[in-house]
Specification:
Length: 486
């Protein structure tokens, strides 16, 4: 049975019988649909395809033609010759619990294939569809493309009468480890169109701190700071972008060049933001992680790294591990990773979440500002990076909750089968929908609760939008939150 919620901007499909992803690329539809004459192959087992298709029906896309061969759900969003960017959550290629848990971490190709087919229908085979993301610097992108089946989708459909398809790893550099165990960065092409700096200045949500001295913005991707010393307060790479004179984000031009942006997020909890849905998924449109503040170093009120400093024994163990790694290469000893994963599975250690640090708690007052600044740029920046008064590209969002992740997300949480997908045309509304289904108060999630307070380059569809969605009847799954959010 499928439950649905009708409105102008959002809907969902709940199908309890769908508990896994279809794993045979290129993820052909389960039957021949009259509106898709160019799709010649089918596979009756691919129920994920029909789930996404039904979501578009529930949204009322091209409502007058639903059920006929003329149905064209994306016709009001995409036209021949357009450039469409699909931005899935592709954060990492592994999970400490193994392959099955990785399905709860990243978007699978079976959720993307129906979107491509219906875009191709609307674009009549003319234009370009680009799948792009900026995952973690250590992620093996080729391994991820193989796991998700995305590369096989591209290869198979480019041989047919489809619009031009491509996949782009937007990272300008990736993190590698040499034989000695030392880490280094290796440059790569990244976005072939390059990048553009966008300064939000006094309109940034960080401008509130411009008159405060000694504010330090940090991110784990910055190699110039000491992440193992909670009292370290040196200048960071991020401070070059965010300071009393400027608030700059370096954005991929391929994102800004799009006529339609399709955001495909995973339904997960997040140690810094509480949840990671459509709004949070926009983090991946940047050039590198250095321009995106994740926390402010120190304790409240100026800092939000943690509610208190970690105990001394914890800092000692961190330093000991560094010495063992550099001295005897402990991480390269056969079986070490399996032993560490064994301890983590049984909660003897919980990775970086054992103690609250690096902004991994509900007191994080930084990441929501980054998230909302980036969403405003996505919606209102033109192709040259100039912020405009009206939205500059069309938008569609899909939240994949077929296999979700709860607990220590976004990469170390536990899978939760929820058999649900959400979709719509405004990220705030769709996220509010999903948060209600997760059983989490929207007031707790600042990137949702604070969105209604923005006056310039608004995200909220209405000043009176009620983020609790009292009229919405949706299945509630009561997700476990990360340690710092309980």
């Amino acid at each position: 049975m499928e439950n649905k919620f009708f409105s102008d901007l959002t809907a969902f499909v709940y199908a309890p019988s769908i508990t896994h992803y279809f794993l045979q690329p290129p993820f052909d539809p389960p039957e021949s649909y009259p509106e898709l004459p160019f799709v010649v192959r089918t596979n009756s087992q691919n129920t994920v395809y029909s789930m996404v298709r039904n979501l578009m029906i529930n949204l009322g896309m091209d409502a007058q033609n639903i059920g006929t061969k003329y149905w064209d759900p994306f016709k009001d969003l995409a036209k021949p010759g357009d450039v469409v960017v699909i931005k899935p959550n592709l954060i990492t290629h592994r999970h400490y619990l193994g392959k099955d848990a990785l399905y709860s971490t990243v978007i699978h190709g079976s959720s993307i294939r129906p979107i491509i087919d219906y875009l191709n229908l609307a674009m009549k085979g003319q234009g370009a569809i680009i799948i792009a993301d900026n995952p973690m610097v250590a992620t093996d992108f080729k391994a991820l493309m193989k796991f998700t089946g995305i590369q096989e989708i591209i290869n198979a459909l480019n041989d047919q009468s489809y619009v031009k398809l491509a996949v782009i790893d937007l990272r300008p550099r990736i993190l590698k480890e040499d034989r000695s165990g030392d880490f280094y960065y290796m440059s790569q092409e990244g976005d072939p169109l390059g990048y553009v700096d966008i300064d939000l200045g006094k309109e940034s949500l960080f401008s509130e701190f411009d008159d405060r001295a000694n504010i330090r913005y940090y991110t784990l991707a910055d190699p110039s700071i000491d992440h193992f010393n909670p009292k370290f307060k040196g200048k960071s790479e991020t401070d070059k972008y965010h300071n009393s004179k400027a608030h700059i984000y370096t954005i991929s031009r391929s994102i800004l060049n799009s006529d339609l942006f399709i955001n495909i997020a995973k339904m997960k909890t997040h140690c810094k933001a509480g949840i990671t849905l459509l709004l949070k998924n926009v983090i991946g449109v940047v050039y590198g992680k250095g321009c995106i503040p994740h926390w402010r170093q120190g304790l409240p009120p100026d800092g939000d790294s943690s509610p208190s400093y970690p105990p001394s024994y914890y800092l000692y163990l961190q330093q000991l591990y560094i010495k063992l790694r550099r001295g005897i290469r402990i991480h390269q000893i056969p079986g070490f990773r399996k032993f560490r994963n064994f301890l983590q599975k049984r909660n003897f250690i919980v990775g970086q979440y054992k103690h609250l640090e690096h902004g991994n708690w509900k007191g994080n007052d930084t990441i929501w500002r980054t998230i909302l600044d980036l969403n405003r740029i996505l919606l209102y920046a033109d192709k040259d990076g100039k912020m405009c008064e009206q939205p500059q590209r069309k938008y569609f969002g899909l939240i994949d909750g077929i296999i979700s992740q709860q607990g220590e997300g976004p990469m170390a949480g536990n899978p939760l089968v929820t058999s649900i997908v959400f979709g719509g045309f405004n990220p705030l509304i769709v996220d509010a929908c999903a948060v209600k289904s997760m059983g989490i108060s929207p007031q707790l999630i600042k990137c949702i609760s604070k969105a209604n307070t923005i006056n310039k380059w608004k995200i909220s569809p209405d000043d009176n939008f009620d983020i609790s969605l009292p009229e919405l009847n949706v299945p509630v799954f009561n997700f476990n939150l990360p340690k710092g959010w309980r």
